[in-house]
Amino acid sequence: MPPKRRDDPEADVRPPGFSRAGTRALEVAENLIYGGIALFLVVSAFVLLAVAGKTSWGLVSDFSQKPLLEVLDILLLVFIVVELLFAVRTTVERRELVAEPFLLVGIIASIKEIVVLSVEAASALGTGAEFDDRMVEIGVLGVLVVLLGVTSYLLRRKEREPDEGDASPDRGRR
Predict the structure, then answer these.
(1) Does the structure show a pLDDT above 60 at 173?
(2) What is the domain partition of the chain in residue ranges?
């Protein structure tokens, strides 16, 4: 946030209902909460990596698809946790909620479910309703991935455009 100038009429405007000490106390509480969330996410990521390592060890004795699918499922969950950690870090740094990391988490989570459902659908091949249900879920998740991707693209495109409130003298002279 740029420093306020002395001739700025908003320089002395205080948030309604809170003194500076109250606002500062809320900022400290907010930072502590974000720190707790970040710590929890870091510990969760390391625990998940340990579980993935333990599950990978099971691949030595069992060459079926089940342990491999479990490892893939856990690793995709680690990606989700790391992206959530990035979202928390970005929120703390910018002091605003940024949508893009959450869109990426949604894409990764949807892809994770598509992978799991596709393996389940392959094992349910020929069983009728169960297979059809899995295919519908995969289709809905596929559409969700496309929509989240388009939303992320549009968000990035919007961020590259100049602000709408920009009152530069060259605007509108075309």
Answers:
(1) no
(2) 26-97, 98-160
